[in-house]
Amino acid sequence: xxxxxxxxxxxxxxSVDLLFDRFFNDSLQKSPNAFSPKVDIAETASxxxxxxxxxxxxxxxFNIDLKDGKLSIAGERKLExxxxxxxxxxxxxxxxxxxxxxxxxxxxxEKGIExxxxxxxxxxxxxxxxxxxxxxxxxxx
Length: 141
Description:
By secondary structure, the chain is mainly beta. The protein has a domain at about 30-80 and about 95-130: Immunoglobulin-like (Sandwich). It has one helix and seven strands. The strands form two sheets. A four-stranded antiparallel β-sheet has the order 1-2-7-6, with no helix packed on it. The longest helix is centred in the first third of the chain and has 15 residues, at about 15-30.
C-alpha cells in the first residue's frame, strides 16, 4: 500500500497562484542541499540570546565563529539513506547545510559568548559589556 499525502492547497481557485508563487519564491531561495532554520532573538538587560531550531544535530555538527562583530553559525544534517529495512513515505524535516549570520552591536563581551545544544535548540548567550555603552544623541537641524 502506498500512502499519498493530500494537500488541500493544491485544489481550488488559488492553486495556480500558489503554484507560481512556490516556483518563483521557493526555487530561488532554497537549494536542495540547504535549509534555513527558524531563529528567535531576545534581549535582556545583561545579554542578547539567540535560539536556533535545529533538531537532529549533534553538538559537533556546528561551526560558530565571530569575526569583526559578525556572528556566523553553520551546520549540516545529512539525510539517512533508505535501505531494505526502511522506505521513507514522507520526509518533512529539513536536511542539508545551513548558514546564519548576525551583525552584533558594539557593546558585547566577545570573550563571554556561550553556546549550548539541548533538545534540538542551539542556544547562544551573548553578554553585554557595560563599559561599552552604545549611545549617541543626534541633533535635529
